[in-house]
Structures are given as C-alpha cells and as structure tokens.
Design brief:
The chain is mostly helical. It contains ten helices and two strands, in the order ααβααβαααααα.
Length: 299
C-alpha cells in the first residue's frame, strides 16, 4: 500500500528546498547587481589606474612581472576549456595541478590578474557551482562539461562532439581567429561578431549535436568571452597569440582595461550585447572564407 503521508512529506520537503535555492539565487543576483552598479558609477568619476600599474603592487603580474610559466603535465595536471584559468594555473597563480580550486580562490585571482571588478569575477566563477555537487571546489577538468564554461563554436576549441578533451587549445583555430583582425593588428568588436557568426554557422553545419541553436544563454556566454578579449587585451593579435595559443602571459603584459575598480558586469554586458546582436550566422562571408569542418582545418 502506498504511503501517501511520507510521499506527500517528501514532496513538500523538496519544494521547500527548491524554493530556498531559488530565493538564495535571487538574493545573490540582486545584491551582485547593486554592488556592480556602484562600482560602475565610481569608475566613471575615478581616475584610471596608471599604465604599468594596472595590477596592484604585491600581486602577480604587477609591472608586467609574471611568475614563471611551466607547461602543464597533462598526465598529472588538469586543465579546462577556459584560457583565463589555464593561464593562471600555468604560471602557478592558481595551483599548477589545477585541482581543488575554490570559488573565492578563482574569483580573487581573475579579479586582480585581469583587472575585473569583484562583482564580475564572482559572476564568472559562479557558473561552475552547478557542477561541484556541493563540494565547494572543482578541478579545472570539471569545466569540460558541455555548456557550463565549454560551449560549441568556441574560438579556441573544436566542439566537444569532435574533441571530448577540451583542456588544450587548437592552434589552427586560434590562428584562424587572429587572421580576422581587419587592420591586421587587433580584433575589433565587429571582427569578433563576424567570426562568431562564422564559427556558429560551421558548427551547425558539421555538428549533428550542435547545442547553441536554441540556447540564447550559451550564445550570450560565448559573446561575453569575445567582449572580455576586446576589453582586457584590446583585441591585440600579438598578445592573444601567446595567451590563447600557448596559454601563458606575454612578457611584460598587463590588462588594457584600466578602470579604478575593474571592468564591471555593466560594461561587459554592453559589449556582449553589441557583439551578440551583430552576429549573423547567414552572413555573407569575407573573401577567402569558407565553412570548415574540423577535418578541413587540419588538412
């Protein structure tokens, strides 16, 4: 005989737990936005950080002085689809093995290495909480899960359907991205939007498991990566070749964004929306471009 009382009690407990989680997320989002708006307004009137001193004294990278780069041992170290985190681990700013990283640890390091506001750093790392299973920490390899940090039509990785291990960049894809700088020196927002449209079109064409077709959220996340490339690197091709392709910091490099309190969510969203709504997956291709499959790119 069914135990209706215990069944009903179990349903009630789950509803309460789910409701508490929703309320907690809503409170987090509201306070994060409120703090970010304050940081954004202060940035409007505060003096920018001086060139050569964007990263504060005492933090890795101050004055362009980065800790030693050591290429990861992929038999013992763990890496992710995120160049920003991989670079930090390769320089020992995050643990070099890429394991047992807490959200506070990740947010703190990306905030200071890339001159992000605390709010944007928190927002970028919060996405990983859906895969930590309540542990409070992750290994970088955990981020290989589809549509958490990793997403189809990436600038630096082939889709997970073709490349299950997303821990290393594909040099051909990186070079192809950088070749789309219209002036030959730096990627503009228009260049990034065009190349995003190209990558999405070819992923949709070649990948029967293409996951972005009905997911604005993950398209938006991909455009957000382009916005960060533009803000933090100024789209500089020379620096991005090292940072994206080798996953290390160029010698003497510091963030191009010099806001007093760091690049904020509001600033990031403005550029992200500009990129996303400029993307056309059916656009006329530039001279010399064609839709390529992973096999074609490696011919």
């Amino acid at each position: 005989m069914a135990d209706y009382y215990n069944t009903g009690l179990g349903i009630f407990k789950r509803l309460i737990k789910a409701s508490a989680k929703v309320v907690s997320l809503a409170v987090f989002a509201v306070q994060l936005r409120a703090r970010d708006l304050i940081w954004t307004l202060i940035n409007l009137v505060a003096r920018n950080r001086p060139a050569g001193g964007v990263i504060p004294p005492g933090y890795p990278g101050h004055g362009g002085d980065w800790p030693k780069y050591i290429a990861p041992n992929l038999e013992s170290d763990t890496r992710s689809p995120c160049p920003g985190l991989n670079n930090l681990a390769n320089h020992g700013i995050l643990p070099r093995n890429g394991k047992h990283l807490t959200y506070r640890q990740m947010a703190h390091t990306i905030q200071h290495a890339y001159n992000l506001s605390p709010t944007l750093a928190e927002r970028l790392t919060a996405a990983a909480k859906q895969i930590d299973q309540g542990r409070g920490w992750i290994d970088l390899h955990d981020l290989n899960a589809l549509n958490v940090i990793q997403h189809d039509a990436s600038f630096t990785r082939h889709d997970i359907a073709f490349c299950p291990d997303q821990s290393s960049p594909d040099r051909d894809l990186v070079e192809r991205l950088l070749a789309h700088a219209s002036n030959g020196h730096s990627l503009s927002l228009a260049d990034i939007a065009y190349y995003s449209g190209l990558r999405r079109a070819e992923s949709k064409h070649s990948n029967g498991e293409y996951s972005l077709a009905h997911s604005f959220r993950h398209k938006y996340f991909g455009s957000g990566n382009g916005a960060l490339i533009s803000a933090v690197f100024g789209g500089d091709v020379k620096d991005l070749r090292v940072w994206l392709g080798e996953e290390r910091f160029p010698a003497g490099w510091e963030p191009k964004n010099r806001e007093a309190l760091g690049y904020t969510i509001v600033q990031s969203q403005a550029s992200t929306l500009l990129i996303e709504f400029s993307i056309d997956e059916e656009q006329q291709l530039r001279r010399g471009d064609e839709l390529s499959s992973p096999a074609k790119l490696h011919e």
